[in-house]
Amino acid sequence: MFSANPMEKRLQIAGIFSITGLLVEALCLLWALPITFVIFAMAGGLLMFIGLVIFLYSLVSTT
Amino acid sequence: MSLATGLICGLVLFSVILIGILVSRPSVTTSRGGKILAFVALFILPIFCGLLGFASEMERSKTTVFCLSCHTMESFGKSLYVDDPTHIPAAHFQNHRVPADQACYSCHTDYAMFGTLKVKLYGLKHVYIYYLGKPPAPENIKLYEPYNNRECLHCHLGARSFEEGVVHNADPATLAAIKSNQLSCVSSGCHDVTHDIAHLNNAKFWKGGGD
Question: How is chain A split into domains, by residue range?
Fold first, then answer.
């Protein structure tokens, strides 16, 4: 599934993290409960942050 | 689902589709257009969706329904329907002196700089205690700090009923003491009936509202 090119592979990993984070956040928006607020901020935010960091790393990495 | 939530979910879905294209065909990023697509899909859109979603969550966390969704708060929600004009939270809620859909937040926020952030951090602590700690019985719940008149004066300051109120002006020093928070609005003999959880069983309730 993953590309043999290291940069493309990093983009794919970043994409998977971002998709997961976005879906978690979208699901949390369906309920107005304190626990969904926490999951939105902690889990969704963390997954998206990891995705962003990997994406930015893929831009600056030389390999 | 509100229109705003629907729009955010739509944007999230759009972002997921774009990112999905990149994940399934990463070779598109070799072209200039592909690089722009990757930047938009993997950087701009997730940040945009995250900020919109966070703003939406923050707004929803101010709602009465949100606060009362925890069982611990049920009695406090019930106290908003007490049919007694001396019961301050009930009188404010039933007469829309505060927005009925944001009743808890309107009185229990902190009308100071970063006040919303401060109360939301308290809220995170409440969630932690609710799920991982031992929530206190409703009658044992106390405020973190004594109720500050600033929260009352946010609306009442300058209002004729407050400034010219007979009791407020009975003594020339009273009004100044209230405004400087030296005499609490909820002190004994003033507006001291707040959430009287202990006596809810004997209370008469207002049937209106529909919330």
Answer: 9-60
